[in-house]
Amino acid sequence: MEDHEKTETKQPAGSQARPEDRAGAELTLEALAELRDRKNLEYLRAVLSMENPLAAGIGALNGDLMIFANYMQQNIMPALRALPKEPGALAKVMPAMEAYGRVARQAERLATLTDRLNRQADAASKAAAKMKAKEAGSVAASM
C-alpha cells in the first residue's frame, strides 16, 4: 500500500483507543469512508427520532447530503491519486472537488440550522415546564 493511501491516527493523551481506530494504527481511505458511512447512519437515526418534525426533516436531508458527500469524496480521492504530478493536472478533477465543497458547505449549513431549531425547541420546552410549575404553585397556594 502506498503512503498516500494511509492516514495515521493519534490518540489524545489519556484517551482510550477505539476499535475503529484499529488499535491506534493507520487507517486506509476505505476504512475511513466506512467509518464515515457508519457515523452518517448513526446521525440519520438520531435526527429521525427528534420530536421536532422540522428539525427531523432538515436533519434527514442533511444526513442524505453527508452520505452523498462521502460518496463523492470516495470517488474523488482515487482520481486525485491517479493524476500525474504535472502543472495543470489538478484542473481535471477541480469541477468534482468544487461540487464536493458545495455539498459539504450545504451540509454544514443544515447541521447549524438543525442545531438552532433543537435549541429553540429545548428553550420553549423549558419555558413551558417552568410556566406549568409556576401555575401549579399558585394553584396550590390558593387552596
Explain briefly what this protein structure is.
This protein is mainly alpha-helical.
Characterise the protein shown here:
With 143 residues, the chain is mainly alpha-helical. The chain contains three helices and two strands; from the N terminus they run ββααα. A two-stranded antiparallel ribbon has the order 1-2. Helix 1 (29-48) runs antiparallel to helix 2 and helix 2 packs antiparallel against helix 3. The protein is elongated and about 85 Å long. Residues 1-17 have low confidence and may be disordered.
**pLDDT below 50 for ≥5 consecutive residues: which ranges?**
1-17
SSE string, helices as H and strands as E: EEHHH
Overall helicity: 55-70%
Structural class: mainly alpha
Task: Give the neighbour order of strands across the main sheet.
Answer: 1-2
Largest sheet: 2 strands, antiparallel
Please compute the radius of gyration using only Cα atoms: 23 Å
Shape: elongated
Distance between the termini: 79 Å
Quote the average pLDDT. Answer: 82
Into which percentage range does the β-strand content fall? under 5%
